[in-house]
């Protein structure tokens, strides 16, 4: 009988679904082959976006949009998004807008 607390148990392997693709993926590859650990879901979501142009279900990125530069950036966690926004504003003296799944849009400037 499988122990549900066993690290090797299939119940412990996270899955990610995408309704746009109509698929669900088991993240065993990200855990076993890529050794992504706690960032397995984030790694899969970023790879999925690079290949399809959209994120899986339940994944909403933080967006950093510069008012002067043509291309924005996206991050799956808040801390790197904030760091990028503040660094970009500081180095370029551009006004940047930072938005995310659990925050109001914030204007960042030097």
Written overview of the protein:
- This protein is an alpha+beta fold and 110 residues long.
- Helix content is 30%, strand content 25%.
- It has helices at 28-32, 40-52, 78-92; strands at 15-18, 23-26, 62-66, 73-75, 96-100, 103-108.
Uncertain runs: 1-6
Shape label: elongated
Sheet bearing the most strands, described? 4 strands, antiparallel
Order the strands across the largest sheet as they lie in space: 4-3-5-6
Distance between the termini: 60 Å
**How large, in whole angstroms, is the Cα Rg?**
17 Å
Oligomer: single chain
Report the order of strands and helices.
EEHHEEHEE
Number of strands: 6
Strand content: 15-25%
- How much helix is in the residues? 25-40%
* Count of alpha and pi helical runs: 3
Average pLDDT across residues? 89
Into how many domains do the coordinates divide? 2
The assigned structural class equals alpha+beta
């Amino acid at each position: 009988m499988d122990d549900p607390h066993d690290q090797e148990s299939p119940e412990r392997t996270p899955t990610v679904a995408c309704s746009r693709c109509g698929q669900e993926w088991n993240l065993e590859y990200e855990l076993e082959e890529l050794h992504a650990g706690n960032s397995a879901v984030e790694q899969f979501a970023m790879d999925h976006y690079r290949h399809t142009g959209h994120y899986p279900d339940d994944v909403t990125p933080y967006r950093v949009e510069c008012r002067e530069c043509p291309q924005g950036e996206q991050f799956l966690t808040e801390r790197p998004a904030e760091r990028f926004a503040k660094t970009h504003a500081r180095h370029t003296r551009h006004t940047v807008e930072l938005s995310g799944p659990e925050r109001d849009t914030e204007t960042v400037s030097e």
